[in-house]
Amino acid sequence: MEIHIPWNPAEIELVVAVRKKWCVAKPDASNTALQPSLDHVCLLRLDCKPIQARGSCFDPNTVRAHTSYTMNAYYQANGHYNLNCDFSKTAVITTSDPSHGACRFGT
């Protein structure tokens, strides 16, 4: 088995970029469909403080924004596996960083 180790900076940057993925709410998922995922992830004791009042990800104060943050927290904490970004078919994996302002989505 041959192992390729990237050696030039452009190749290393590409490898790092490929690995950056986030899990967010699907654009067409309703608030009613998203709410159980938001509740479930916070009950798992993942850090939901950023989406609470005065938290760095509280705004926008919407079910969709808060659920995207918690979906991603769950996805990142559980190994970046596609099956950890399903949430009853209301989530999708993206390579576009959903972070905004002071709100940082982990990778």
TrEMBL record:
Superkingdom of source: Eukaryota
InterPro entries hit by this protein: X8 (IPR012946), X8_dom_prot (IPR044788)
Keywords annotated in UniProt: Disulfide bond, Signal
A GO CC term attached to the entry: plasmodesma
Domain X8: 21-105
Protein name according to UniProt: X8 domain-containing protein
Organism this protein belongs to: Protea cynaroides
